[in-house]
């Protein structure tokens, strides 16, 4: 498995026979080198979106249309994308599992908000979510934008993820301390990768508080477009 950070909350996850792009915000992302866009999306088989905010779903329809692949996500959001942009979609909802090749993707709840920007103000885009991505007995938990939730205990017991990709920048989501607390309280991760940080001054710039709070867990501060092999 190779997990490659695209900056902010975007990831390229090569797992099984799939290359999944999760929240691939590339256009206007201050952390992403636009000249390397083709490299980031090459060989992608599907796009996963966690919610409608532009820094997560903004590029999804264009990437999917150009590559001839589907956008998978909350039914409300993907239905809007299909009508507005004509891209192929797979709409599902919390607790649902879809098969993408030999990879299973289960949608789980998150605690945040989800909307699309318009001249008339925010447009409802379905509720926010996270994902459990499973292949060959290994599971990755992608939290999406969220705070700590008691539901995480249920997710851990049902899916037993060994890798956690956790939002941890604070201000808009849980911060490093809260994400680390959730990891200790609910999960048994071998590896944690923080995200939704370093992008803007309002967000955390270092994962050191998480590293200090999770002894015995491999906390990886990702670098943009540098693959992490797990």
Overview of this protein structure:
The protein is of the alpha/beta class and 230 residues long. The strands form 3 sheets. Strands 6-5-4-3-2-1-16 form a 7-stranded mixed sheet. A 7-stranded mixed sheet has the order 7-8-11-12-13-14-15, with helices on one face. Helix 5 (151-159) links the parallel strand 12 (138-142) and strand 13 (163-167). It is 23% helix and 29% strand. It has one domain (2-220): Ribonuclease Z/Hydroxyacylglutathione hydrolase-like (Metallo-beta-lactamase, Chain A). The protein has 7 helices and 16 strands. The mean pLDDT is 97.
Tell me briefly what this model is.
It is built from seven helices and 16 strands. It has 230 residues and is of the alpha/beta class. 50% of the residues are buried.
CATH topology, by name, is Metallo-beta-lactamase, Chain A
Shape call: globular
Any idea of the CATH class? Answer: Alpha Beta
Q: List the uncertain runs.
A: none
Coarse structural class: alpha/beta
What is the tally of helical segments? Answer: 7
- End-to-end gap: 5 Å
Order of helices and strands: EEEHEHHEHEEEEEEEHEHEHEE
Fraction in beta strands = 25-35%
**Rg of Cα set:** 16 Å
Largest sheet: 7 strands, mixed
Instruction: Count the E strands.
Output: 16
Number of domains: 1
Query: What is the topology, as strand order, of the major beta sheet?
Result: 6-5-4-3-2-1-16
